[in-house]
Design goal:
mainly alpha
């Protein structure tokens, strides 16, 4: 008798899975789970570094130096995916698969050359960039930071291949490999740190970062070949389709650079506070950053292909309904995570970092930073959904303008709040910026969706 009611239940689940909301929700769970597994290696790297160096000068120098490659790679990867996926989906529908494969090859060649040029420029400009970023550091600490940056700049060029492959596989809705890939580099880095830190100190972590980026290239190419997908052949040709991607990419890149610059600006401004403030800001953001990395990758990866298809089909009713339903789901779950983190801030920091040279005094300072960072979660993730929809709607200039405003707002709030609260004020500033940006992105989306039926 129990089998009878189960059949309608299974059919109901099957119908839900076939809806846009069901596809997004299912993909989000898969990507988030695999990303959580991959990001565990990042946590292991941070815990190992905290134990080895504490919240002191060496780790301050590494964090400032590594912020530049991480900042550039994150901005390029996110912008490229948002520009590439909608165009690839349209191209695969309009033309044969051979044309789509050639498009990927063209994108790979251009990206490798472009990021190679960025690597050379960054290496040449390091002697000017580091003193600006670390203006509060003494001379010997600035020299150490610049040396570590020289070690790590090759990671920018090496990151070109994973950037393109990740966007390509996500466009094919093959989410598993791209979700696991970010765990490879930190795993390699922590291994090298454990083996060579006694001999090379903080330089072991910098060397491990670059070697990890190289291993990521080998892994993504090998895994794509093993899975049976044709490897794109790099051909340097600016095709009309690639030019369209470029038209969408540049506003996204500038917007993403500004959006991501809040972290970089936070670190620069923290460097002007008491010694160890950069490390405290970094450690205090780690738990929140982990949730954002896991949930953000899941949300951002899953919604873009579905939103792009609904926009291409001009199915505005389904698009609006899916946006509202999924937006509510994201906000509620993110608020729950935020409540858990803020309610257990001190025990979490004790569990993760309080060992070796990381003292109880460090725990109190970092826990305060973590509390204010965690409040941003619902607003950050909801704004990510809205930004992906704006990209699918080709409103990347709007994204740029809102982000430019938020960047200025972040600097102003940082300055005002850190005068009263120290490094914890910088964390609170970040949350307030995300709250305001969510409202601005929501307003832009609502205006476009009201106009959409008249424009198609």
């Amino acid at each position: 008798m129990s089998a009878t009611p189960s059949a309608p239940n299974k059919r109901s689940k099957s119908r839900f899975a076939a809806t846009p909301l069901g596809r997004i929700a299912g993909a989000t769970l898969v990507v988030a789970a695999l990303t959580a597994l991959a990001r565990s290696t990042t946590v292991a790297r941070e815990i190992t570094a905290a134990s080895a160096f504490g919240a002191g000068d060496e780790l301050d120098a590494y964090l400032i130096a590594s912020a530049i490659p991480v900042y550039l790679l994150g901005a390029i990867a996110g912008s490229f995916q948002s520009a590439f996926v909608p165009r690839y989906i349209a191209l695969a529908k309009e033309k044969d698969q051979g044309g789509a494969d050639r498009f990927v090859g063209n994108a790979l060649a251009v990206t490798v050359l472009g990021m190679g040029a960025v690597t050379l420029v960054l290496a040449a400009a390091a002697q000017f960039i580091v003193p600006l970023m670390a203006s509060g550091f003494p001379a010997d600490k600035i020299i150490m930071t610049r040396e570590l940056l020289y070690f790590m700049v090759p990671a920018v060029m090496l990151g070109a291949v994973p950037v393109v492959y990740t966007a390509w596989l996500n466009a094919l809705e093959l989410y598993r490999l791209p979700s696991l890939l970010p765990g490879v580099g930190p795993l390699v880095a922590v291994t090298i740190l454990l083996l060579f830190a006694p001999h090379f100190g903080i330089r072991a972590l910098a060397i491990g970062t670059v070697f990890g980026a190289f291993i990521e290239v080998l892994v993504v190419v090998t895994a794509a070949r093993i899975s049976g997908h044709r490897i794109p052949i790099p051909r340097f040709k600016i095709s009309p389709d690639l030019a369209k991607v470029g038209t969408e990419f540049w506003p996204l890149l500038f917007g993403t650079l500004l959006f991501s610059s809040t972290t970089l600006v936070d670190q620069i401004m923290a460097a002007s506070l008491d010694p160890g403030s950069v490390a405290a800001l970094s450690f205090g953001s780690r738990v929140t950053a982990l949730v954002i990395a896991v949930a953000g990758v899941g949300v951002g990866t899953s919604v873009l292909p579905t939103f792009s298809r609904l926009v291409a089909d001009h199915d505005w009713a389904t698009l609006t309904r899916t946006l509202v339903q999924f937006g509510i789901m994201v906000f509620v779950f993110a608020a729950l995570f935020s409540a858990v983190i803020t309610g257990s801030s001190v025990p979490l920091i004790e569990l993760l970092f309080e060992r070796g040279n990381f003292s109880g005094a460090d725990t109190g300072r970092v826990a305060s930073v973590q509390f204010y960072f965690a409040l941003q979660l619902p607003f950050f993730l909801l704004s990510l959904v809205l930004v992906r929809l704006l990209s699918a709607l080709s409103l990347n200039r709007t994204v740029f303008m809102i982000t430019a405003f938020n960047t200025v707002l972040n600097i102003v709030l940082n300055y005002l709040l850190m005068q009263r609260m120290g490094v914890a004020g910088i964390a609170l500033s970040t949350t307030l910026v995300h709250l305001i940006s969510t409202g601005l992105f929501a307003g832009a989306v609502m205006r476009r969706l009201r106009q959409a039926p008249k424009l198609t």
